[in-house]
Every structure is written in C-alpha cells, then in structure tokens.
Inverse folding.
C-alpha cells in the first residue's frame, strides 16, 4: 500500500466539475463562462505592473524555523506594490489536509487575508484575500492518505517518532478528499449552495463581469475572492494569464506493445527494485540517527530529502508501468487552452501571454527531467501549441506563442530557455518557482543543458538551457538551503518585457541570510 494515493484523472475531472456545478442550467441561461475571472482593480488596464510568484510552499516549521513564513515576510517587504500573487501549486503538504491549512497556509500568509490578525479564527473554506491570490492545484493538493495511515500518524506516538525521519507528518486523517479541500479553499464552491433560488441570487451577485466569452466571475479583493474553476483565464495590463491544472494531463504515455516497449518495461521494473533497495538502506541509516543531536539532525534531514525523492521516482515508475491506452487525458482543458490562445492572438487589446501550471515540461532539478509525467506534460503542451501555431500562421511575426511559462513541482528556482525544439514551444522563457517553503532539491549531476531523444531516433537534440538554478547545495556544515520567490515587473510596450527579480532567504549554519539576486529581463 502506498503511503499517499493519487486519484485517477477521471475522478479529478468529475469531482471538480461537480463542485462548481459545471454548466448548471442557471449558469448556461445566464451565458456565464466558468473559466474566466475579472480582477476588480482600478489599475487593471495599466500596462506597467508587478506581481509575485511562489510555489511548493505549504509546509510548517522545520525544527523551530519556518522557511515559508520567512518567504512571506520578504514578500511583504519587496512586493508591497504588487497587484497579485500567483501560486504554482502544492499549497499544503503533505496531502492537502484541512487540519493543516491553518498552520501551513493561513498563519504563514496571514497579512494577505482579511482578519489575518486573528488567523486561528479563519476557516480554510472562508478565506478572503486583501490582495488577489491566484493558485493552481499541485499534485499534493489532490493526494489522499489511506485511513489506516492517518489513524496511525495521529495516534501512535512511537510510530510518529520513527516515521519523522521518513516523511513530513502534516497529513491529517485522510488528506485532500480527492481535491475537495483545495476546492473549498479557493474555488467558488457552488455545490455548497443547496437550492436554485440561492444559487440564482449568488450568480446575479458575483458573476457580473464581462469576459471574452460572456459574463464571468468578478474577483473582489477584501470581499469575494474565489476562482471559477480549477483552470481559468484573466487579463491584466494587456496580458492574458492562463492558469492550468496539469494534474489531469500528466499521465505518462503508454508503453508500446512491441519489443522496444517490453525492454522499457523490464528497465523500469529493475529501476524500481533499485529504488526500493535504496529506500531500505536510507531507512536503516535514519534509524541510527538521533534527531535531538544537531549534527545528526542534519544527516536525518538529508535522509528524509533523499527518501522523498526516491518515493517520487517510485511513484512515477509505477504510473508508467500501470498506465494503459485507455487512460483518460483532460482533452477538454487542452482544447480550451488551444481555443483561448487563438482568440488571444486575435484580440487587439492583448499584447502578451503567460501560462502557469504545476508540472514543468523543462527542468534540471535532480529527479524530474526523465520522469514519465514530465515527458507527458511536454508532449501534450506541444500538441496544443503546434495546433495554435498552425492556425495562426504568419500572424505571430516570429514571436514565440507564449511570452512566459511559470511552473512549480521542482523544489528549486530555475530559469530556462528553449531552443528550436521543432515545435510550438520553441524560444520560450520558462521559470520554475517551486522553492518557497518545502524541502529543497539539488540540480541534476548531468548539468544545465537538456537534450531530448525522439522515439526511434539514434541521436539526441538540444532543446533547452538552464540559465539560473537556485536549490539545495553544499555538504555537511556547509550545506545551504536557499528558499525563494519571484517578483516580476511587467513593462509597457508590445511585445511586453518582463523584469524578473529573484529573492532568496537562505538557511546556512542555523542562521538566515536574505539575498536579492541580480534581476534579468526576458
């Protein structure tokens, strides 16, 4: 039995639709678009503005220090004039439990919340933000916990002592309930409205903005701060922002049924055995360490981080081995993205486009590049962008289809640039912002250059370069943990220019050090 479980894609899609009463007759009668919102902001048309980006933040304190809170304090100082905050997913670890929203989200970001001076009085499903907070769901926001593990984790003190070297036990009793807790926290949870009269009144009050495809939700800071769906669009300063739920199109590509596929299956099975052997060895090592000894606590933290990575690799291998040709892929969302991108390029008022979602298609963090999920997301996004490029033809005049892509999932800060990939994702800037609170990862040993080998090809192709990587580094007493977030300043003009300002709160030798890294323009 896996320690955490990931619901099937079909379940994620169906549950989330049910929670927002997708295409209810009262919604369709009013010609409401449930995938768009309008920020109720007097500066929404100003072409010069700033926003903040964080991701993979949702952890509690770590042995009396709290990286997430440290980052939040820096955000307040360096982003006072920013217009909104984007979150690239994994809002609450380990399994998005309701019980941990106070400790792992509400309290760390209390200044962003109405009534934040008394965070204990704020419920996870009653949060109202005084500055727009716009997340996408991460994989941990969907994860669940088998009930037996929840009972043991909550009640068995000896087990908690043993397991604290293996997992972060911020798990609650069951987890996210297949994404329900995330939906209650951030989406307009229409399912909670129990009769049509109340629903009609709610729609007439909050779905009054005019979007690109009809009426849509009006996001009102300090009053009503809900998202219309798990994926959505909004426009600010002439920039179209597209928020995606990559958890429903990240299923690995099925293995072929020929000899090549059989060989790949045998290789994956051997890799899984190797991973399980390494896990056992690390568990044995961790049991010999005393967490109350500062030096051994550092070694224990390394063991836990390595175990997290191995568990992630094992989960990805299992998905590759189990996936079938009948695996559901969220075609509806991908078609939505295709159509909205085409419409965006045909809208004179739009001067740029930004996409943000959880799983990065390009990344050099130690565990991600070779994962089946990474390849799947990259191929499916390419398929969409290739169709968009074919439809637009010469209209782009040589510009990349997307000005900027923002991701999380990889626990680091990274800037990558794609080369000529042969697809619609060529010459795009990609920012991975997944180091805002949870355990950090190192860069892969192979280095910053990414090559891709097409199926049945004998040679590989350069597809991307990593231009900046900020993650765990150093060894022993010289180990550094640089947690991070981004401030992005958008300049006027077409195409737009983005000035990226990385900020780092580094934990080194039990002290905090704050850094503002050199800004760069993309």
């Amino acid at each position: 039995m896996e320690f955490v479980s990931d619901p099937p894609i079909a379940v994620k899609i169906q549950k989330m639709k049910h929670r927002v009463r997708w295409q209810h007759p009262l919604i369709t009668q009013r010609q409401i678009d449930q995938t768009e919102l309008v920020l109720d902001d007097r500066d929404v048309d100003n072409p010069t503005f700033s926003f903040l980006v964080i991701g993979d933040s949702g952890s509690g304190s770590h042995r009396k220090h709290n990286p997430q809170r440290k980052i939040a304090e820096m955000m307040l100082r360096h982003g006072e004039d920013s217009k909104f905050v984007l979150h690239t997913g994994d809002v609450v670890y380990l399994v998005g439990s309701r019980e941990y929203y106070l400790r792992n989200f509400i309290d760390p970001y209390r200044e962003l919340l109405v009534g934040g001076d008394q965070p204990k009085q704020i419920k996870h499903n009653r949060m109202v933000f005084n500055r727009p907070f716009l997340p996408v769901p991460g994989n941990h926001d969907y994860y669940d916990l088998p009930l037996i593990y929840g009972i043991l984790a909550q009640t068995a003190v000896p087990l908690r002592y043993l397991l604290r070297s293996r997992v972060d036990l911020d798990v609650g009793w069951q987890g996210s309930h297949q994404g329900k807790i995330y939906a209650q926290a951030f989406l307009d949870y229409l399912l909670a409205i129990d009769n049509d009269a109340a629903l009609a009144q709610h729609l007439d009050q909050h779905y009054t903005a005019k979007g690109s495809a009809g009426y849509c939700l009006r996001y009102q800071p300090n009053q009503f701060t809900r998202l219309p769906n798990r994926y959505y669009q909004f426009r600010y300063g002439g920039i179209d922002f597209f928020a995606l739920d990559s958890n429903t199109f990240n299923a690995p590509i099925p293995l072929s049924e020929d000899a090549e596929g059989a060989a790949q299956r045998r290789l994956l099975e051997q890799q899984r055995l190797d991973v399980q052997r390494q896990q056992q060895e690390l568990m044995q090592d961790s049991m010999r360490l005393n967490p109350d000894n500062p030096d051994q606590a550092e070694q224990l933290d390394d063991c836990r981080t390595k175990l997290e990575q191995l568990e992630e690799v094992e989960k990805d291998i299992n998905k590759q081995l189990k996936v079938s040709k009948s695996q559901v892929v969220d075609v509806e969302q991908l078609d939505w993205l295709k159509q909205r991108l085409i419409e965006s390029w045909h809208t004179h008022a739009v001067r740029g486009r930004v996409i943000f979602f959880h799983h990065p298609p390009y990344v050099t963090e130690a565990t991600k590049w070779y994962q089946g999920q990474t390849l799947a997301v990259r191929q499916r996004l390419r398929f969409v962008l290739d169709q968009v490029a074919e439809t637009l033809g010469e209209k782009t005049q040589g510009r990349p289809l997307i000005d900027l892509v923002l991701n999380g999932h990889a626990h680091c800060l990274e800037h990558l640039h794609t080369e000529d990939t042969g697809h619609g994702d060529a010459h795009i800037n990609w920012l991975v912002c997944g180091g805002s609170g949870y355990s950090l990862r190192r860069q892969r040993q192979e280095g910053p250059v990414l090559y891709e080998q097409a199926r049945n090809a004998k040679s590989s192709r350069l597809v991307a370069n990593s231009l900046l990587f900020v993650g765990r580094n150093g060894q022993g007493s010289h180990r550094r943990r640089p947690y991070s977030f981004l401030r992005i300043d958008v300049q006027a003009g077409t195409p737009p220019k983005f000035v990226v300002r990385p900020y780092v709160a580094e934990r080194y030798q039990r002290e905090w050090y704050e850094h503002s890294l050199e800004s760069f323009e993309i």
